[in-house]
Amino acid sequence: MKMIFHQDKIFNLLKNSAENL
Questions:
Q1: What stretches of 1-21 show up as alpha helix (H) in DSSP?
Q2: 18 vs 9: CA distance, rounded Å
Q3: Rounded Cα gap, residues 20 and 6, in angstroms
Q4: pTM higher than 0.85, yes or no?
Q5: How far is CA 18 from the centre of its chain?
Q6: CB-side neighbour CA atoms (13 Å) of 6
């Protein structure tokens, strides 16, 4: 469960970074 939550957080960060580019 924790790993999935961690991956989700990283995925959101990557999505935000892609939007900022």
A1: 2-20
A2: 14
A3: 21
A4: no
A5: 11
A6: 3
Q: Which structure tokens are listed for 3?
A: 């790993």
pLDDT digits (tens, 9 = 90+) for 1-21: 677 788 999 999 999 999 987
Residue found by looking up tokens 């989700």 in the block: 8
What single letter denotes the amino acid at residue 14? L
Alpha carbons 11 and 19: distance in angstroms, whole number? 12
CA distances for 3 relative to 9, 16, 17, 18, angstroms: 10, 20, 21, 22
